[in-house]
Amino acid sequence: MTQKVLSGNYAQSYAAQLARVQVISAYPITPQTSIVEKLADFVASGELPAQYVKVESEHSALQVCLSAAALGARTYTATSSQGLLLMHELLHWASGMRAPIVMGVVNRAVGPPWNIGSDHTDTMSQRDTGWIQIYAESNQEVLDTVLQAYRLAEHPDVRLPVMVTEDAFYLSHTVEPVDVPDPERVDRFLPPREPHAVLVPGTASRLGSFTGPDYYVDFRHQVAEATERVPTTFAAVEEEYERIMGRTHGGPFPTYRVDDADAVLVTMGTITTTARSVVDELRASGRKVGLAKLRMFRPFPNDAVRALAATADRIGVVDRSYTFGSMGPAATEVSAALYRSPRRPAVTSFLAGIGGRDVTLQEVRHMFDTLLSGAPAATHWEDLEIEEGAVHG
Amino acid sequence: MIEIRFHGRGGQGAVIAAELLAQAAFLDGKMPQSFPFFGVERRGAPVTAYARIDDKPIGLRTSIVAPDVVVVLDPGLLATTRVTDGIKPGGLLLVNTHRGPESLAAPPGVRRAVVDATRIALSHGLGTTMMPIVNTAVLGALARATGAVSLEGLTRAVEQFVPARPQDNRFAARDGYLGVRIEAASEAASGAAAAAPAAPARPRVLPEGPVASLSSEAIDTAAWRTFTPVIHLDRCTKCNFCWKFCPDDAIEFDDVGFPKIRLDYCKGCGICAAECPPKTIEMVATEI
Predict the structure, then answer these.
(1) The domain A2-245 is classified under which CATH number: 1.10.240.10, 3.30.1450.10, 3.40.1000.10, 3.40.50.970?
(2) Is the ipTM of this complex over 0.90?
């Protein structure tokens, strides 16, 4: 193991290299570009014996990965924002064809207005494409999760594509110490892909072609069932990772100081780090608050959310995006999960960090204050209620 | 924990400076974090970068609004950006300038330090007169002025992570370390802060309508300019090439058809000077 000071983007590149990906195809877009630039360096220098396919758009990049995966290759691509939106059609193809592609996504705002800051609207818009979605909080988590994602995606019980996301700039361009595991150790965790149901050149077979109403539903139901097996498989994958690497990130929905908490915030991505500091600060002054990190958004960890509701009286969900006419997308999911729970604490939806707006200590304190005040559950555009941290140089 | 904010321009190396500082701190055995904020990703546009250094992992992922140290890579920014906003009492302002520390406006109690990083960079052939690469010289000065990183750590970081000309950059860091001028705490600024005008307050409610809140005519891209084009009309043939190639429509014509620079919008990119067939346009350094 080597410790390196890496950006979140380079953590993606190193993970793809360690995973010994065979085909990479991508199109540049800020703030993703340095991921695939680094991979291009690895390929050019011979450090990564892979095929790097240059294309004219993100749509084609994913098509290349899809075709390579259909032939049994381990593939990687990365994108962000508008690039992910352009891939939308092929995202459905990837899950429907059971292609175990792993994609890095740097969460960036969707225009207009044009903005390169962090925002989850891009991946939330892909909620229903059948991809597994995992949101990282640190560069270490980025690297570890990409490796775990290949095991999960290629697992015989799953065989679905995975996106591993990181917040623009707050991870993508932030450098911090990261443990980079030795290749031999990664090889023990992640053996070469065992192709299943792939096309063999020279042999007549079809993937994803026409199916009438007689069988279409069966294929869709297979995807649904595979998705339902993800929580069990992911737990096993993480356990194996911990056994070999000595590190875990706590499953799809890790909690922090929630046991006797009156109010719990559910956060995603980098807002979690700042919120954890606020929990420690408020706990030190005797206020009972806790934190839950929504690490896996698809499939949604319904059971873990219901378990949290068994103790917490007030739940706030922080979303870095908004679903127009409703509330934060994670807040809608948490609410839906709780409706089938014997205990149903009211859910407050906080919208924070939209378009790269800084989510400060003060802003997180304000959210806990709102929850603890006993105010009725509502949707708060937190960025507009708090002024500090709004201005950049 | 020490929090450092860098102000520079796109292409000057402020982002790399913050990253190199983090690498140096890590080699010193510390737990660093650094990240940039890009307003627009354009050469010459103001850029902010941040670094935090602590003995334990950093539990914050926010911009730095109350820095211990502010580093300014381009003195031209002092007139347009309120670089010392939020700086902590007893904090340090380090500026790349050939002037003395007393020339800097800073809030009361803030210590001032200067380093002529442009001269150091050019003396080692780093960058060009139009765009000197000053970051390693400035980091040397920062190491001396704050002790945030050791010169040894910085030197090793430069050797390992600066892909182009590591030796010249190492010398620049050393010269910055030796050449920084720091005022004593007793002489710390007592005058008024920041000469730059305050940013306009964010309107509480934006009018609904077009998605851009400002016309591009209202955006002061002249603040990006470090070199100004001067047209020597005696040799001008009125060919209009400068006007055709100007990426910002910052060239207009006078009554008799000679080109004229619109200084409110010219970013000083130098494309007109490069394209002018009889070479009548000269790029002149803006006096700071």
Answers:
(1) 3.40.50.970
(2) yes
